[in-house]
Each structure stands twice: as C-alpha cells, then as structure tokens.
Design goal:
It is built from 12 helices and 15 strands. The protein is of the alpha/beta class. The protein has 2 domains: about 180 residues, Rossmann fold (3-Layer(aba) Sandwich), CATH 3.40.50.720; about 170 residues, NAD(P)-binding Rossmann-like Domain (Rossmann fold, 3-Layer(aba) Sandwich). The strands form 2 sheets. It has an 8-stranded mixed beta sheet with strand order 3-2-1-4-5-6-14-15, sandwiched between helices. Strands 9-8-7-10-11-13-12 form a 7-stranded mixed beta sheet, with helices on both faces. The protein is globular. The relative contact order is 0.15.
Length: about 375
C-alpha cells in the first residue's frame, strides 16, 4: 500500500503520526511510504531518520495526499486540507467529528474513509488509541492548572501542595476515566486535596481503594457539583462519551459560585467541552477569563510535549496502521471489531451513531460497506 504522512499544520501541533521505527516496520513489510519534508522535526526526528528507514521524503503536502492510498495523521484535517481528501482514500487520525459538523460534512463530501482513533473500542470498553493521549493530557492538566493558579497569571495565588501550617489547594476533577485518574495521580503527588466526581459507582469504589489518602471520590450530581466548585482552586474537566459531544456539567451561571482567580482546565474541549463557557484555545494563547474565572482550553494539549506524546501515541496506533496497510481497511475491520468501531465515515455516509446524531445526519451500518 502507498502510505502518506503529512506534516501536522494545526496551530502548535508538533507531533507526527509515525516515528522512524514505525516507518521501518512498514517499509520492511513491503509498503511504500511518503513522508512530508520536516514532518518529524517537532518530535525530534529529522528527515534522514525516515530516509534510513526506507521512506521517501516529499517536499509538499499536496504530493503526499495525492499519492497516498492511506493518510496517517495525528490531528483532524483542517479546512485547508479538506480539498486534498479524495474518494476512496483512507484517513486514519483523530477526528472528533461530533464537535465539528463542518469537518464531518467535508469528509462526507470527499468520499474518503475516515477511521477515527478516538472511537476504536475494545470489548472491555477501553479506547486504546485515546488512552495514551488521555494519560498525557490528564497529567498536563494539573501541571498547567498549577501554573495559572499563580497570581502573576491571574490566579488565586495558591500553591497546590501548600506548606506546613497552610492548607493545600483543592483540585476538583469531573470524570474518573483515564484523564481524571492521571490528573488525580499528579495532583495527589503534589500534595493537593483532590476530589474526583463520576456517576460510575463501580469505578469510584475501585479508585477509593487504589488512590492516595488525599484523594476523595464523590458521586456526581448537579447539586454536588455546585457545592464542590465553590471552594475549588483548580477544576479539571475530564468527561468523555465516546464519539459524542461532552455534556455541560458547569453552566455559565455556575461561574458566579466560584472565587475570582479559580482555574478551569477542560480537557474535553475537543469533544465540545463540559463547561458551557469553554471554547478551544492554542498553546500560543491558552487562556481567557469569563466572570473572573480563568479558562484553559488547549484542544491539543499533548502537542505541547511532542516527543513523549508521539512515542506514546504511535506505540498504540502502529499495530492498527500495520493491519490497515497489510489487509486493506475492509478486511482489517472485518477481522477486528475494535477497529471497525473506528470507522466513522465511508464514501459519503456516516457510520458512527453518535456522530450522525450530533450532526443531524443519517447513520448507516458499517457492515454494509465491508463486503
């Protein structure tokens, strides 16, 4: 198969979809690989690494997109890339369609096959291609939140770990999945008072057993959230409904219950966010203030640590990339139900129910396109 790796051009995105080790595995398996010049530089991989792995370096993105049967990316195609998508081309990347109807319709109109990292789902419910970036984002959320709690950044002036004789800061985490759990580990390690909220009692019982003593778990209700946000120093949104828009757990009205200088880090912003007043920001301009509450909403947080993120992501994606390249997308999906759930759009048809519902489009059965 002819495989293309274009350079990521979304603002402040430094990851690359394939490291040299993965390039070597694909070329040794007999595939032809086209890598855009400079695609790996942000993650510390120069072009000669890819050449030595057997890949061809192409000067421009147009050539990569035009020649490849399958495009492997990290982030969703942005508007300038939409005309490059073509009928029958497989695109394997994060899409987050439910939060972007324009992107969904562009993929539908292109006739391409969009396979989304974030909806590949194992029988256990685990999202193996979302997990590594959720781990990174959860840990970064506390790191970034702690920074913006500093007074020169507009925050409350609170040190999360406190000092002897001074109460530690309070971190409220909405969601007890991968993001929330990793955020709790980091916050607890810093010595903060950590409160995690979720509606999954089984998950809360598990975390209550394994987490540090300074982590408390609470069942999530609207009433309980309103109570907890009143004295929280840092609030982390870590809610995920696979493939769907995140529910708004904090309303604009709720901001009035918070103290001036409270920090919100909404990791679920790429799925629409769990805070009503959230909107995507970038690493260059990461925060804004609404009603004296600081909002941090970088939609590609792991892009800020691309070396770690690229390696963590591609450890998970490479086996699926190998399967798609070696077997073709239809056979690969027939043989792997987890990968089949990653198929969101096929030749003009939406095939993932949550995406169809969010965008007001008809949903088709993926199986209809696999024979």
């Amino acid at each position: 198969m002819l495989i293309g790796v274009p350079k990521e051009i979304k603002s402040d995105e430094y990851r690359v979809a394939l490291p040299p080790a993965g390039a070597e595995m694909l070329t040794q398996a007999g595939h032809e690989l086209f890598v855009e010049k400079g695609a790996g530089l942000g993650s510390g991989f120069t072009d000669d690494f890819y050449v030595n792995a057997g890949a061809a370096i192409l000067d421009g993105p147009e050539d990569v997109w035009a020649r490849a049967d399958m495009i492997v990316k990290v982030k969703e195609p942005i508007e300038v890339e939409w005309p490059r998508m073509r009928d029958g081309q497989v695109i394997f990347t994060y899409f987050h369609f439910a939060a972007d109807e324009s992107l969904t319709r562009a993929c539908v109109e292109s006739g391409s096959i969009a396979i989304a990292y974030e909806t590949v789902e194992l029988p256990t419910g685990e999202l193996p291609l979302l997990t590594p970036m959720s781990e990174v984002a959860g840990r970064m959320a506390v790191q970034e939140g702690a920074k913006y709690l500093e007074r020169p950044q507009g925050g409350l002036g609170v040190l999360l770990g406190g000092v002897p004789g001074v109460l530690p800061g309070k971190v409220l985490i909405l969601g007890a999945g991968v993001v929330g759990t990793n955020a709790a580990k980091m916050a607890a390690g810093m010595g903060a008072r950590v409160h995690m909220m979720d509606i999954n009692l089984k998950r809360l019982r598990y975390l209550d057993d394994v987490m540090a003593a300074n982590v408390n778990v609470l069942y999530s209700t609207r009433y309980a959230i309103r109570k907890q946000i009143q004295d929280a120093d840092l609030i982390i949104g870590a809610v995920l409904i696979p493939g769907a828009k995140a529910p708004h757990l904090i309303s604009r009205e709720d901001l009035g219950l918070m103290r001036a200088g409270t920090v919100i880090v909404d990791v679920s912003v790429d799925q629409g966010g769990c805070v009503e007043t959230i909107r995507p920001t970038t690493h260059q301009d990461p925060v804004y203030t609404v009603d004296d509450v600081i909002h941090y909403a970088v939609a590609n947080m792991p892009g800020g640590v691309p070396r770690t993120s690229t390696l963590a992501l591609t450890n998970a994606t490479l086996p699926y990339t190998m399967a798609l390249a070696g077997k073709g997308w239809q056979r690969a999906c027939l043989e792997d139900d987890a990968l089949k759930l990653g198929v969101n759009v096929v030749r003009g048809h939406v095939t993932y129910p949550a995406v169809a519902d969010a965008c007001g489009l008809e949903c088709h059965d993926t199986d209809d396109f696999l024979t």
